[in-house]
């Protein structure tokens, strides 16, 4: 895998973030004001495209917290026009690793004589926003493992990156929502800083691994090796799988059907049953096996769902499946999803339109979910249809990563293009979760 130059640090990062924000914000404001003066509305697609490209190029070079925020923005389909989402989606793939010499200090600090423990491949197997993965062999038993190494200085830069982006992007985001954003920023910061804690990540990976061992419906997870892991380093058993959009889409339909059903089941059980969610829906964080199993990788983004919030999600799914518009409207309002300007429930036509788009998942009939179904695109289109209302909608900050994951799940399933009885699966999972609630 081709390596990339080490990202800038300190003031250089701040200047690059500031320069990007000034160019993007100034360009969008100028075009928006110009169109209003001309009697038009909105911003042309080519303007969005140019500015999204500016953002992507800067954030990709910076890596760390800056890049992570960009990745999160790329999954907010309801917030930005499709031109922005498409360009920022590049941040979810094609990430260039650093040379091994740049990341070796983390390994050397934890294991001063790591050469006596591993035979490590110095060419990265994969790279992400805050670290990269190398294959290795344990010299004690010749078993294959993977070693995840954090980029140098990324934890320190995370705080300054976040604060700079928050300051510079908040006015930009106000173009799209009237909602008070402080709670959202706090939730993002909380999750971002947890992602640099590799010791916490190992604990989560162990939980998910044990859960998958006891119930195959929860997917397969590489076993972490806690005794070899620590600050800036995670060592886990090597669990290879099929990855990559093109490779997956070329697999037989029968396999893609199984993968789609299993991925859907894994994530919805995490939300409705377990209350512990793998909250980074990048397709590269999932692998697929010949027996239909799904492998989960990378546990830096895990969302612990509070019990009350989980009960709200169960009720939302229950009433959506039943098509009970009145109870669904009231549940959404009780959960804090409402029109903040009037402190009112979301309009029934708004909810009904969303239920219509989600029918392939709710109907209980066997349906195919692929790009032709266009569910994610239709949800984005509803954001444009209800633009004024969407700007007034408020919701609990704690659902940001849950919603991000659920929309990402739909997008991943669309890429698999599977056929299944999604409503039937959802009913089974809901029934199981309600049995758990009675205990």
Describe what you observe in this structure.
55% of the residues lie in helices and 11% in strands. It is an alpha+beta fold and 439 residues long. Helix 1 packs antiparallel against helix 2 (45-62), helix 1 (11-37) packs parallel to helix 6 (154-173) and helix 2 runs antiparallel to helix 3. The longest helix has 27 residues, at 11-37. It is globular, with a radius of gyration of 22 Å.
Describe the secondary-structure layout:
Elements: H1 11-37, H2 45-62, H3 64-74, H4 82-88, H5 100-110, E1 118-120, E2 126-127, E3 131-138, E4 144-150, H6 154-173, H7 182-195, H8 198-214, E5 233-237, H9 245-249, H10 253-274, E6 276-278, E7 286-288, E8 294-296, E9 302-304, H11 307-322, H12 325-334, E10 338-339, E11 344-345, H13 348-357, H14 359-362, E12 367-368, H15 375-385, H16 387-392, E13 393-394, H17 400-416, E14 419-420, H18 422-438
Antiparallel strand pairs: 1-3, 2-3, 3-4, 4-5, 6-9, 7-8, 10-11, 10-13, 12-14
Helix pairs in contact: 1-2, 1-6, 2-3, 2-4, 3-4, 3-6, 6-7, 10-17, 10-18, 11-12, 11-18, 13-15
């Amino acid at each position: 895998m081709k390596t990339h130059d080490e990202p800038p640090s300190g003031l250089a990062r701040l200047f690059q973030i500031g320069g990007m924000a000034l160019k993007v914000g100034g360009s969008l404001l100028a075009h928006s004001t110009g169109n209003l003066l001309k009697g038009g509305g909105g911003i042309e697609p080519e303007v969005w495209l140019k500015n999204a490209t500016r953002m992507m190029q800067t954030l990709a070079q910076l890596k760390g917290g800056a890049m992570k925020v960009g990745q999160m923005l790329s999954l907010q389909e309801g917030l930005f026009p499709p031109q922005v989402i498409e360009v920022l989606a590049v941040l979810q793939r094609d990430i260039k690793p650093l040379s091994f010499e740049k990341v070796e200090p983390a390994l050397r600090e934890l294991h001063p004589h790591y050469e006596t423990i591993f035979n490590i491949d110095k060419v990265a197997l994969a790279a992400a926003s805050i670290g990269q993965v190398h294959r290795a062999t344990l010299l004690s038993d010749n078993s294959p493992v993977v070693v995840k190494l954090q980029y140098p200085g990324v934890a320190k830069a995370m705080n300054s990156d976040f604060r700079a982006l928050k300051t510079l992007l908040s006015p930009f985001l106000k173009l799209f929502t009237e909602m008070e954003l402080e709670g959202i920023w706090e939730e993002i910061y909380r999750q971002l800083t947890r992602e640099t804690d590799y010791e916490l990540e190992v604990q989560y990976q162990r939980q998910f691994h044990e859960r998958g061992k006891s119930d195959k419906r929860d997917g397969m997870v590489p076993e972490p090796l806690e005794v070899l892991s620590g600050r800036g380093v995670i060592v886990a058993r090597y669990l290879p799988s099929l990855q990559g959009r093109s490779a997956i889409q070329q697999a037989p339909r029968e396999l893609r059907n199984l993968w789609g059903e299993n991925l859907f089941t894994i994530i919805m059980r995490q939300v409705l049953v377990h209350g512990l969610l793998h909250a980074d829906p990048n397709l590269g964080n999932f692998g697929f096996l010949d027996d239909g199993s799904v492998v989960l990788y990378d546990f830096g983004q895990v969302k612990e769902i509070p019990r009350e919030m989980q009960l709200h999600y169960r009720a939302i799914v229950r009433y959506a499946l039943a098509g009970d518009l009145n109870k669904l409207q009231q549940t959404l309002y009780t959960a804090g999803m409402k029109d903040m300007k009037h402190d009112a429930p979301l309009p029934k036509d708004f909810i009904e339109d969303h239920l219509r788009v989600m029918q392939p998942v709710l109907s209980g009939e066997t349906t195919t979910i692929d790009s032709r179904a266009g569910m994610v695109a239709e949800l984005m289109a509803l954001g444009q249809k209800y633009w004024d209302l969407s700007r007034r909608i408020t919701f609990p900050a704690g659902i940001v990563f849950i919603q991000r994951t659920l929309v990402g799940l739909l997008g991943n399933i669309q890429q698999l293009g599977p056929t299944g009885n999604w409503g039937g699966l959802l009913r089974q999972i809901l029934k199981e979760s309600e049995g758990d609630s009675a205990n």
